[in-house]
Design a protein that fits this description.
The complex is a heterodimer of chains A (77) and B (709).
Chain A: E1 5-6, E2 15-21, H1 25-33, E3 41-47, E4 54-58, E5 61-65, H2 67-70, E6 73-76
Antiparallel strand pairs in A: 1-6, 2-3, 2-6, 3-4, 4-5
Chain B: H1 5-8, E1 27-33, H2 39-47, E2 64-69, E3 74-79, H3 91-102, E4 107-113, H4 117-130, E5 134-139, H5 141-146, E6 149-151, H6 153-160, E7 164-166, H7 176-183, H8 197-207, H9 212-215, H10 220-229, H11 232-242, H12 249-264, H13 269-288, E8 292-294, H14 300-310, H15 315-358, H16 363-401, H17 404-417, H18 424-433, H19 435-441, H20 448-457, H21 467-479, H22 484-515, E9 526-529, H23 537-572, E10 574-575, E11 578-579, H24 580-594, H25 599-607, H26 615-625, H27 635-644, H28 649-660, H29 666-676, H30 679-707
Parallel strand pairs in B: 1-3, 1-4, 4-5, 5-7
Antiparallel strand pairs in B: 2-3, 6-8, 10-11
Helix pairs in contact in B: 4-13, 8-10, 8-12, 14-15, 15-16, 15-22, 16-23, 17-18, 18-19, 19-29, 20-22, 20-30, 21-22, 21-27, 21-28, 23-26, 24-25, 25-26, 28-30, 29-30
Classes of the chains: A alpha+beta (77), B alpha/beta (709).
């Protein structure tokens, strides 16, 4: 078990498990709706040309999220 | 680019909850589902209608209705905007939620995407908590099969206690079991999800206090959950639809008791939301366990495509090249048909003239109808139809393939630097078709401030009505001498440059607005990038020609005919020594010269307010009636006539700039008024691009003067 890191810091093609969602209310609910909940698995599959946002595989779908929106989400690689 | 009769016509107005039933026994069926799972495709297949479809989330932003007759019953189908959840976060999600919760549809079909069923299950569960008659329709079964995903619908149906039907909505035949399920639906009970203990206890306290009058209308357990969940928009909606319950003393008492229970358990309101959401997700996982089998690496091709379309090195160049390719095909392909149509239609003009003379009609009637109305119509048709008939289908192909969300993904960072949102690029793309449709499409943006930014700047990308103007001027003035492959390539390149300029202007305007009247920090950006899909080429061609092209052309013709008449009258009524037209043009001339145009051009833009398509025809009509060249067939002749009237390269550049940046057409402005509900913003939507256009033209004119062009 490694130390939890912020979700925007995981590398491309790395898989991680979500540990704690500290994002503000509005964003948190939106993320939960698309299946990003504690203990769910995510994978970073790429970055946009300017490095932000990044694309993540969440619950079988590819979702683009800005670094600032997932900086408060702690994951374990 | 959702432009169809229904998206910009009078039907664009939300029909609200008003259901148009044909008979007493008609049943209302709501189609719900996550964004981009093919709800509209299912809707079209069931109703035989042509609601616009495309492979990107947020395409359907309002409620659409249609009829579906089966052997036993008539159904009114209601196509709802896509939602991930019924705890709404955006205007369109609220629309869907309110319909399912309060319009009491007889049955709700939840359309799911077979390729990510578990995520979709969240909405299924939430819907089944509210409605007793739910059918799960798992769409895209063919795609799932291709990706090695296996779904056991029987097991799912058993676990959920409701019908689960797998379909491939693009193949109409596969919908037969869905129709059979509709006919055979019976009331089931509300789906029960277990929540953590303190929440269950609180729900029980409230539920027992809900009076019978409300129980009839809504599932009391669901209502109790929402009351402890404390969602203010939903509470307001409940008050409006069901009546105020804050004046029911027992309920108020129960509510405070329940809150005390939750408080004692140490649950804050946000914890309650999380716990409820978490329970739903766990339940969804449980339902799908063993019923859905996913093979690894099912999306390898998609990832490879994503690297090509969105990587640092290739993302932006590919975007521009695709745009260039689309324009090149449009310009090249439109050339010959345009010429043929023009020959044909102007040939008919001569025949019409002969007919008028042989019938002995007065000179003025012939001139006014043939030289006024008919000639403008012929112009509009021959200039507009071919590029539209090529551009629209090409764009539809891009749209169906799933590329557009990647554009939003690529452009999010630059938009964020303007304090806006990447989804604005989706509304920008819709603007290519029609700015009014683009403005309506801005509903996909959640934050009201960012939505306003997108609405106010939408007209800075040229709509289809302005493409012919741009193409004509570019061809006539800058490519004229070069012909063949090289010529059309240069045209396309110039057009791409103009579009890129429009996009840059959008960024500038967004930045200006967000630093002044619409101050604020960027909110969040969460966008689903759907799987790539091979578009159905034949169908797309036919559909976009009939749905969009002919509709847009019809609108242009409807505006052009009276405009032709007005222009003719203006040109032929003399006051003093000159016609009314030249008086108007003379009046506008001094100001127009200042921005590199002339009075006639500015007048054409003003008269083109109802539809931008007619700007060039009006201009040519006006020059023609001021008396110069007799015939206008080829672009060479048009060029000669424009030069005769004092046009230079600078004039052409200024016309292009002004066409790109001036007031939006009347339809767009009316849509802005409707969407923002504010005269002030409607005014701003017209004033901002106009001001930008005037400044850009002044600069261009000045540069032209200095360089002596």
């Amino acid at each position: 078990m490694s130390k939890p890191i912020a979700m925007n810091n995981i590398e491309i093609n790395a898989t991680a498990t979500v540990r704690k969602i500290n994002a503000p209310e509005g964003i948190r609910r939106r993320l939960m709706d698309i299946g990003l909940t504690e203990n769910s698995k995510i994978e970073c599959i790429g970055k946009s040309p300017m490095g932000d946002p990044s694309a993540y595989l969440i619950c079988g779908a590819v979702i683009a999220i800005r670094a600032s929106d997932c900086a408060d989400i702690l994951v374990e690689v | 680019m959702g432009i169809t009769a229904s998206s910009v016509g009078r039907n664009a107005v939300d029909s609200g909850f008003e259901i148009k039933k044909h008979g007493e026994n008609d049943c209302t069926i709501a189609l719900a589902g996550n964004p981009n799972v093919g709800k509209s495709t299912v809707f079209n297949a069931l109703t035989g209608m042509n609601q616009h479809t495309g492979n990107w989330p947020g395409k359907t932003v309002a409620i659409a209705q249609g009829c579906c007759r089966t052997q036993s019953r008539n159904y009114v189908m209601v196509d709802l905007p896509g939602t991930y959840s019924l705890m709404a976060h955006s205007a369109e999600e609220e629309v869907a939620r309110n319909f399912i919760c309060f319009a009491s549809p007889d049955t709700v079909i939840v359309v799911c995407d077979a390729t990510c069923l578990e995520r979709n299950m969240n909405l299924v569960l939430q819907t089944a908590e509210i409605s007793k008659n739910v059918i799960v329709c798992i769409n895209l079964m063919d795609e799932a099969k291709r990706k090695g995903i296996k779904i056991n619908t029987t097991l799912l149906s058993e676990r959920l206690g409701i019908p689960v039907i797998g379909v491939t909505a693009r193949k109409k035949k596969s919908l037969a079991p869905l129709v059979a399920a509709l006919d055979g639906i019976k009331d089931s009970s509300y789906f029960h999800i277990n929540y953590p203990e303190p929440i269950e206890a609180a729900v029980e306290i409230i539920e027992s206090a809900i009076p019978e009058s409300i129980r009839e209308k809504i599932n009391p357990r669901w209502l109790s959950l929402r009351l402890i969940d404390s969602d203010p928009t939903l509470e307001a909606e409940i008050e409006k639809r069901i009546g105020s319950f804050s004046d029911i003393p027992e309920l108020r008492l129960a509510l405070s008791k329940a809150k005390a229970v939750l408080g004692k358990a140490g649950l804050l309101p946000s914890d309650i939301c999380d716990a409820i959401a978490q329970s739903l997700i766990s339940k969804a996982h449980e339902v799908c366990k063993d019923a859905v089998e996913i093979s690894k690496d099912y999306s390898k091709t998609d990832r490879r495509l994503d690297r090509f379309f969105t990587s640092r090195a290739t993302g932006y160049p590919v975007m521009v090249l695709l745009l260039l390719l689309v324009f090149w095909l449009t310009v090249t392909g439109a050339n010959y048909p345009s010429q043929i149509l023009s020959d044909l239609l102007f040939g008919i003009q001569d025949k019409l003239s002969e007919l008028f003379y042989s019938l002995g009609s007065p000179e003025w009637l012939h001139d006014c109808l043939v030289l006024g109305v008919y000639r403008v119509l012929a112009w509009v048709v021959s200039v507009m139809l071919p590029p539209m008939a090529i551009f629209f289908p090409l764009f539809s192909l891009l749209e169906d393939s799933g590329y557009l969300p990647r554009v939003a993904y690529n452009l999010d960072k630059p938009f964020r630097l303007c304090n806006a949102c990447g989804k604005q690029s989706l509304t920008m793309c819709m603007g290519f078709g029609c700015n009014a449709a683009g403005v309506v499409g801005c509903r996909i943006i959640d934050s009201p401030r960012e939505r306003l930014l997108a609405i106010l700047t939408n007209s800075l990308v040229p709509c289809n009505g302005r493409f012919p103007t741009l193409i004509t001027i570019i061809t006539v003035f800058f490519i004229g001498t070069a012909s063949g492959f090289f010529g059309s390539f240069l045209s396309a390149l110039a057009l791409t440059a103009v579009i890129v300029l429009g996009v840059l202007a959008t960024f500038a305007a967004t930045k200006i607005l967000s630093e002044t009247v619409l101050k604020g920090v960027p909110s969040s950006f969460i966008l689903e990038l759907p799987p790539y899909r091979r578009p159905k080429i034949a169908e797309t061609l036919i559909r976009s020609i009939f749905d969009r092209t002919l509709f847009v052309l019809g609108r242009a013709v409807a505006v052009a005919a009276p405009a032709g008449l007005v222009i003719w009258i203006f040109a032929n009524i003399s006051i003093g020594d000159a016609s009314l037209l030249s008086h108007c043009a003379d009046f506008l001339d001094p100001f127009a010269r200042l921005i590199g145009l002339d009075g006639v051009i500015l007048l054409a833009f003003i008269l083109g307010f109802p539809a931008n398509e007619i700007v060039i025809p009006i201009m040519l009509m006006a020059y023609y009636s001021l008396g110069t060249l007799p015939d206008l067939g080829t672009s060479y002749e048009i060029g000669a006539m424009l030069i005769e009237n004092g046009w230079t390269a600078t004039t052409a550049v200024c016309v292009i700039l002004f066409s790109l940046m001036h007031w939006p057409c009347s339809t767009t402005l009316m849509t802005v008024k409707k969407e923002t509900g504010s005269i002030k913003y409607t005014f701003l939507a017209a004033a901002l691009p106009t001001a930008m256009g005037i400044i850009a033209c002044m600069i261009a004119a000045e540069i032209g003067r200095v360089m002596g062009l």
